[in-house]
Amino acid sequence: MQSFHPEKRLLMGPGPSDVHQRILDAMARPTLGHLDPDFQGLMEEIKTGLKDLFQTENSLTYPVSAPGSAGMETCFVNLVEEGDKVVVVKNGVFGERMRQNVLRSGGDPVMVEFDWGTAPDISAVEDVLKQNPDAKILAFVHAETSTGVCADAEALCALAQKYGCLSIVDAVTSLGGIPVRVDEWGVDAIYSGSQKCLSCTPGLSPVSFSEAALEKIRNRTSMVRSWFLDLSLVMDYWEGDGGRSYHHTAPVNALYGLHESLVMLFEEGLEATWERHRVSHDMLVSGLADMGLSMFVDEAVRLPQLNAVTIPDGVDEAAVRGRMLNDHGIEIGAGLGPLAGKIWRIGLMGNSARPESVDRCLSALEASMAAGHNS
Ligand SMILES: *Cc1c(COP(=O)(O)O)cnc(C)c1O
Fold first, then answer.
1. Which of 49, 115, 352, 353 could bridge to 280 as Cys pair (CB 3.0-4.6 Å)?
2. What is the pLDDT at residue 235?
3. Does residue 170 have its Cβ closer than 6 Å to ligand 1?
4. What is the helix (H) or strand (E) element at residue 87, kind and residue range?
5. Please, are residues 160 and 217 in contact by the beta-carbon 8 Å criterion?
6. C-alpha 75 to ligand 1 mean position (Å)
7. Can you list the alpha helix ranges (DSSP code H) found in the chain?
């Protein structure tokens, strides 16, 4: 075997996004023991930074030591008990994963489905909540990465409260790219990922739980069906004042990376970060229009950080993506499920959301499409 030296790519797909050199440098610093007082100081700073990022006072706010899917599972296995009815909004890949999580947690999912590429209709969700007065939880995806659609998270959380449900929100792709206001919206459980708009390496999932969510967890009558993700056990590791007890070995260097990404985010400012995503998105959309390409999602519900581009008829979409990667070193994403072959997904997440990246991507796309016409 030999050491691995990957080519430098520009990551403009659905994640991971481009990781800034400062974050990679931070991750190369000396590994500390995970119960070392200096490391515990870092854990405290990460918790504080994540609270500011989620805009919450929730004391249980920390990064799960595993990717976004584990954050998702943490929310479901802890909040769903045997027989609990959970209304799940689905308008893409990740709503279906929520359904799978409800089933595996012993719950009873009630689906509200919308066409891929459209946003959840609030009154249709309300109808289902009305028809299911015994529902305990409303779960939905804020930023659907498979389509580039933004859900009205504020309105959906308000519905959950109106109908006596807790809310579970997937903010994997939204956090850091667009506003996420946990306390103002009344979110009860939320999870995100390190590798999308936070531009960190993959493998960590920031989560946050409200007091109402903790109350439901404390009143459980059955054991959480996962040992690793059981919050009552993890809490002593991330919360335990002074007497932190061993639960698992934290991914120490990965947490240096997340810490640095939070440092960079607050240096720039949250509002400025959102604005940079929006400006990059506007640049991309107008550049695509100049090339005769159009967006798949209605302007009103488009995410700036995940751009679904309609593939024109007669274009070999996989060949174009192949040329983007091999000739230009740029990764963009393919469509999933019913959108396979119909859209490209161009990510403008975190460090990838920069005018120079948009320019590179547009000229590479133009050249890659033209190369197809010539051959
Ligand atoms: C990427 C993503 C996930 C899963 O995150 P992983 O880190 O890949 O496990 C979940 N939900 C959404 C909306 C995502 O975009």
1. 353
2. 81
3. yes
4. strand 85-90
5. no
6. 14
7. 21-27, 37-54, 68-79, 93-104, 122-131, 153-162, 182-185, 211-218, 231-238, 252-268, 270-290, 317-328, 355-374
Share of the chain above pLDDT 70, in %: 98
Is any atom of ligand 1 closer than 6 Å to the C-beta of 67?
A: yes
Residue found under tokens 């790219």: 177
Q: 0.85 exceeded by the pTM? A: yes
Q: What is the tens place of the pLDDT at every residue in 120-156?
A: 999 999 999 999 999 999 999 999 999 999 999 999 9
Find the range with the poorest average confidence among 77-91, 121-135, 197-211, 235-249: 235-249
Ligand 1 center from residue 173 Cα (angstroms):
7
Is 179:150 a contact under the CB 8 Å cutoff? no
Give yes or no for residue 202 CB within 6 A of ligand 1: yes
The reported pLDDT for the residue numbered 245 is 80
Supply the residue whose CA is at minimum distance from atom 12 of ligand 1: 172
Crossing angle of the two packed helices 211-218 and 68-79, in degrees rounded to 10: 60
Pairing of strands 333-334, 343-347: antiparallel
